């Protein structure tokens, strides 16, 4: 009988095994989540750039084409974003512990994707940028999160880690501030016009007031996404400022140390002479 563990010992072993397996499983989910982000955002970024250059008309004076056109070319791009964000919410919520801001971001993208993908007044002209080029900055973010999730990688490749962080910061500010904000202004302006001018009733039997309400919801979700880009950009600028201050402090400390060492050596030589 002594060869068999007691019930108390079995419970202790089981709890110990579960506590050690759970973090490993969560880490595996996190790595798979980051890898999926990297692949999806890379593909969307490349294809969005392609359509932005070769599919869209350069002259946007034709408002009808901007509001109602490009259904045959860009429907897949919208559906890709919709499917990805529908996947990201439950995975981020239940498996990897995604931040609340990112979960709300995914939800807002879903609201916008449904409008762009399944309504006739879609503003699909903006899809290559909003659902494609914008994701270019998420590629270095995935690499940065890979290092963030692995302290071993940070210690082994510190230069690559810092380089990726700087590349992400520059890419984010260029794509999601410099390029994004003017385009977002045009998008929100046209979306407000579409929401305001959409009919309350198409005929006496079919009530479509919900369309106007939904378009208003899309406008709010789009404005919220814009707010997040501004917020995250400010945090990135603050991080760059801290990095710059740390660099200057380290440089000054090194200079002071070198000066002190030189002075000490000179004083020693003077005493010896």
Write a structural description.
There is one protein chain. This protein is mainly α. The protein has helices at 7-54, 63-68, 71-94, 100-118, 127-130, 138-148, 151-156, 158-197, 209-272. The longest helix has 64 residues, at 209-272. Residues 1-5, 13-21 and 201-206 have low confidence and may be disordered.
Individual helix count:
9
Measured distance between first and last alpha carbons: 85 Å
Structural class given helices, strands, pairing? mainly alpha
Described by the principal axes of the CA atoms, the overall outline is elongated
Which properties best describe this structure?
273 residues, mainly alpha, 9 helices, disordered N terminus
SSE arrangement:
Elements: H1 7-54, H2 63-68, H3 71-94, H4 100-118, H5 127-130, H6 138-148, H7 151-156, H8 158-197, H9 209-272
Helix pairs in contact: 1-3, 1-6, 3-4, 4-9, 6-8, 8-9
């Amino acid at each position: 009988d002594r060869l068999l563990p007691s019930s108390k010992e079995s419970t202790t072993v089981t709890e110990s095994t579960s506590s050690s397996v759970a973090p490993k499983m969560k880490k595996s989910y996190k790595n798979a989540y980051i890898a999926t982000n990297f692949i999806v955002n890379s593909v969307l970024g490349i294809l969005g750039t392609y359509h932005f250059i070769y599919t869209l008309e350069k002259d946007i004076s034709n408002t009808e084409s901007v509001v109602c056109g490009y259904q045959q070319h860009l429907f897949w791009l919208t559906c890709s974003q919709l499917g990805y964000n529908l996947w990201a919410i439950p995975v981020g919520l239940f498996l990897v512990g995604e931040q609340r801001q990112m979960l709300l971001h995914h939800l807002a993208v879903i609201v916008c994707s449904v409008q762009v993908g399944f309504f006739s007044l879609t503003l699909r002209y903006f899809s290559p940028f909003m659902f494609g080029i914008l994701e270019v900055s998420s590629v270095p973010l995935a690499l940065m999160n890979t290092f963030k999730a692995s302290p071993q990688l940070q210690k082994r490749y510190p230069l690559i880690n810092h380089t990726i962080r700087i590349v992400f910061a520059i890419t984010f500010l260029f794509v999601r501030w410099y390029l994004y904000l003017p385009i977002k202004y045009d998008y929100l302006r046209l979306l407000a016009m579409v929401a305001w001018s959409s009919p309350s009733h198409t005929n006496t039997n079919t009530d479509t007031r919900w369309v106007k309400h939904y378009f208003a919801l899309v406008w709010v979700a789009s404005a919220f996404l814009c707010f997040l880009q501004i917020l995250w950009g400010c945090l990135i600028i603050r991080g760059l400022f801290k990095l710059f201050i740390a660099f200057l402090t380290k440089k000054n400390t090194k200079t002071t140390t070198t000066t002190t060492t030189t002075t000490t050596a000179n004083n020693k030589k003077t005493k010896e002479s």
